Amino acid sequence: MEQAEIGIFGGTGIYDSGLLKESKEITVDTPFGKTSDSITVGTFKGKKIAFMPRHGKKHNIPPHLINFRANIWAFKEMGIKRIIAPSAVGSLKQKLKPGDFVLPSQFIDFTKSRKYSFYEEGRVIHISVADPFCPELQNAVSSAADKLNIALHKNCTYICIEGPRFSTRAESKFYKDVIGADVIGMTLVPECQLAREAQMCYVSISTVTDYDVWADKPVTAKEVIETLSRNVEKTKKILTILPEFISQKRNCACEKALSEAEF
C-alpha cells in the first residue's frame, strides 16, 4: 500500500492540487465501497502527500452522495495522519465577503441522510467533537495565511446542510438570525467527524463564494464557480507553504479520540 503523511481533499474548484512531484495515481479498496476518485500521491517539500477530489475529477458527485466513509478510510489505510480540507461556503455574515477565507472552529449539522460512523455493528462509539478541528492544523493554516498576507476569518461556525439544492430565503434567514452561524456549506459533515473517529487530524479551509440567499440575491452555481476560479490560486498558495508549518510529531489529542468514546 502506498503511504503518505498528509491528505488533501480537493473541494469545488480544486480538482488537481498541481503541487506534487513524482506523482502517481492509485486506487484503494475499502469496506465501504469506492472512493470519490483515484488518489494522486507524490512528494512536496520532503513530505509524502495524497490528493483526492471529493466530488470527483469531473465534479460528478453531489455533496449528499459523497462516500465520505470510503474517502476517510482510504486515507487512513495509507497511513495519513493529517487531513487538509478546502471547501466552498456561503456567507451568513455581511463582514464575510465573497472571496474571503474562513477557518471554522465549530459546526452545526443540518444534514439528514448520511453515514456518520464507521461503527454500525458490534461496537457503539460516542466520539467527542466538542472541538471538531485539530488545533495544531488550525494554527498551521493561520500561520500560512499570515505569511501570505491573506485575510483569514477565525472562530467561525459552519452550518452543514444536506444539499444539493441551495437554501430557501426562509431557511437562510433562520440559519443566519436564529441559529447564528457564520458560513453555510454541504460537505463538512460527516467528513470531519469521521476523521476524528479515525483518530486523524482535520482542518477545513473555507472559501466564501456568495452571500447565500438571505441577502436577497439568489445563489447560482455559476456565481459560485466564478468566485472559486478567482480564489483557486490563493488556496493553492496556502497549500504550497502549509507543510512547513506542520511538525512531524503530533502533540494534539486527535490520535486518542477513541480512548474515551466507548462504554
Description of the molecule:
This protein has one domain (6-256): Nucleoside phosphorylase domain (Rossmann fold, 3-Layer(aba) Sandwich), CATH 3.40.50. It is 25% helix and 25% strand. The protein contains five helices and nine strands. A five-stranded mixed barrel has the order 5-8-7-6-9.
Count of DSSP-assigned helices: 5
Oligomer state of the chains in this structure: single chain
Superfamily at the CATH H level?
Nucleoside phosphorylase domain
**So what's the overall shape?**
globular
CATH class: Alpha Beta
The helix/strand order is EEEEHEEHEHEHEH
Low-confidence stretches: none
What would the CATH topology be? Answer: Rossmann fold
Q: Supply the number of structural domains.
A: 1
The CATH architecture can be given as 3-Layer(aba) Sandwich
